């Protein structure tokens, strides 16, 4: 099992502060069957900037530490990049780290809205051959209120990643319900932990796949797991045609 979104590198962002905690997070990942994780420290989110060379160095240090602890987990470099003014130019000048240095870039929207320039930036990234992967759309307030905002972006070629803990119910019933709808309507293509620590933001990837299996069967689990494997190995992820989530009409009121 591959986890494409995690804050596991120590001391870079709001992930673990110490190497010891990071190693414990790796243990929790391996226990549930994860063999590879992409480390995606925050970048340009207003608080953290984590640049290319620093992330690569941190990944190498962490892998050495895991080897010393005999923990069989591969760590690949990545970044969770907030959509910002220079994202297209910086991507063009190889200033950003795509997921495992493939052509997929993990992009975070602000939590409260979808900026008006989102569609244009995601389109321009694709013109450069970069596939945007929108991180946890189910946690964006504007998308939660109107999922057609996400539908338009996916229809125009973006991919999206739902967070395992959203599926597992950690962020409440509404987020869980929306997450399941996004999976059902092919509006998300990956499940990833977005783990920050072992306490309040643990890795719940295996748990989320249990929930998905109960709801949609093994086929859905297989596809979602396979997409992460295809991504990490540099392939193109097949995205089925997305569909709109229909709002339920309240009958008899008007
Ligand atoms: Fe994240």
TrEMBL record:
The organism that produces this protein has a lineage beginning with: Bacteria, Bacillati, Bacillota, Bacilli, Bacillales
Q: What is this protein called?
A: Tyrosine-protein phosphatase
Q: Could you tell me the keywords of this UniProt record?
A: Hydrolase, Protein phosphatase
Q: Which domain of life, per UniProt? A: Bacteria
- SUPFAM superfamilies xrefs: PHP domain-like
Annotated source species: Alkalihalophilus pseudofirmus (strain ATCC BAA-2126 / JCM 17055 / OF4)
Tell me the enzyme class: hydrolase
Q: Which Gene3D superfamilies match?
A: Metal-dependent hydrolases
**Record field: catalytic activity:** O-phospho-L-tyrosyl-[protein] + H2O = L-tyrosyl-[protein] + phosphate
């Amino acid at each position: 099992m591959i986890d494409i979104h995690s804050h596991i590198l120590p001391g870079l962002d709001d992930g673990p502060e110490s190497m010891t905690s990071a190693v414990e997070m790796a243990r929790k990942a391996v226990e549930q069957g994860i063999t590879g994780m992409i480390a995606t420290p925050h970048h340009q989110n207003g608080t953290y900037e984590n640049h290319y060379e620093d992330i690569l160095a941190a990944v190498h240090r962490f892998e050495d530490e895991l080897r010393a602890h005999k923990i069989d987990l591969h760590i690949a470099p990545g970044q969770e990049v907030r959509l910002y003014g220079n994202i297209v130019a910086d991507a063009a000048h190889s200033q950003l780290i795509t997921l495992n240095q493939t052509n997929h870039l993990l992009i975070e929207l602000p939590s409260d809205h979808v900026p008006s320039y989102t569609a244009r930036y995601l389109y321009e990234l694709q013109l450069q051959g970069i596939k945007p992967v929108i991180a946890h759309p189910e946690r964006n307030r504007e998308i939660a209120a109107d999922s057609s905002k996400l539908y338009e972006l996916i229809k125009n070629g973006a991919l999206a990643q739902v967070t395992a803990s959203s599926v597992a119910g950690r962020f409440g019933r509404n987020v869980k319900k929306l997450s399941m709808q996004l999976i059902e309507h092919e509006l998300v293509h990956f499940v990833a932990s977005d783990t920050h620590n072992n306490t309040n933001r643990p890795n719940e990837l295996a748990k989320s796949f249990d929930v998905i299996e109960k709801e949609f069967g093994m086929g859905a689990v297989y596809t979602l797991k396979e997409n992460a494997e295809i991504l990490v190995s540099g392939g193109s992820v097949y995205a089925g045609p997305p569909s709109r989530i229909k709002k339920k009409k309240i009958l008899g009121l008007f």
